[in-house]
Amino acid sequence: MRVAIDGMGGDFGPRPIVEGVVEALKERKDFTPYLVGDEAVLKKLLPSQFHPRVRFINSRDVIGMGESATDAVKRKESTIYKSIELLRNGEVEGVVSAGHSGATMSLATLKLGRIKGIKRPAIVTFMPNQKGSYTLILDVGANVDCDSLNLYQFALMGEVYGKVVLKKTPIRVGLLSNGEEKSKGNSVTKEAFKLLSQFDWFVGNVEGGDIFNGSVEVVVCDGFIGNIVLKTSEGAGEVIGSFLKEGIKKGGPLVKLGALLMKPVFNALKKRIDYAEYGGAPLLGVKGCVIISHGKSNSKAIKNAIFQGLDYIENRVTEEIEEMVKVSQCSQK
Prior knowledge:
The protein is an alpha/beta fold. The protein has two domains: 1-118 and 285-317 and 324-333, Isopropylmalate Dehydrogenase; 124-276, Isopropylmalate Dehydrogenase (3-Layer(aba) Sandwich), CATH 3.40.718.10. Helix content is 45%, strand content 16%. It contains twelve helices and eleven strands. The chain has helices spanning 15-27, 39-45, 79-88, 101-112, 148-165, 187-196, 210-213, 223-250, 253-261, 263-273, 299-314, 317-328; strands spanning 2-6, 32-37, 55-58, 94-97, 122-128, 134-138, 173-176, 202-206, 218-220, 280-284, 289-293. The protein is globular and about 60 Å long. The model has no long low-confidence stretch (mean pLDDT 85).
């Protein structure tokens, strides 16, 4: 398997990206990374013993986080443009980028195209739940405005990808709403509910709390709501963490002793909510494997994003979604 990696597109430059590639190469020997970026810089960061296992694609232009996503289409020498072109031309089977997410989405949609029958691609993210696993949420930002067919198709894609990434079946899919009752929701979700009712894996409406209690594996919503859920959850996690630190700091000897004894629990919690554990967010619905990583990704996040891409490729997710579209005839609804 061959994976193109945007070597320059993170908030912290190429170092954590190259370190993530090294960590991935140490654990798996079944893939070849194509590092796209300033070749001279990347080669200096990559230990010489790994050079034979890596392909370098030279590019010095990087789409900055503050730049417009539309500029990416014109900048054919940029790292993300060249990465997507490698996938489009069949030179690699997947792309991983911690760079400008808007540029990645725009180029992937325009250059790769959508899977036949899929109206819009969706970004998937992972939320830890009480069952010791993750709940997939889509969309979390690719589409601000959605109709019922979009939500219907997100559910189809989420069910397919859920089986791959969670390695379980059946996958239960819920539609995010303001109540579990069939009568709840707005006009769009009510229509989507009707479309999805034909599937055994669809459990109906779910509420925000169901994202975290593990009652479903996939939660579907539009990108506007999904992004708010994602950012709110991240903010809540940070606040809870600061409350705990403040309480321990101000507490007496017994509190500090208790905190010391609870350190393994705190470390386990930190690991569960760490985005680096899953690495990135797949863009479902385009013709190919595109993994969008957090701009602040460390080496562990990059490594796991690469592994997520390899799982995506190995399990033929794109082809599985294409087959699901044909069977459900969702493009005709």
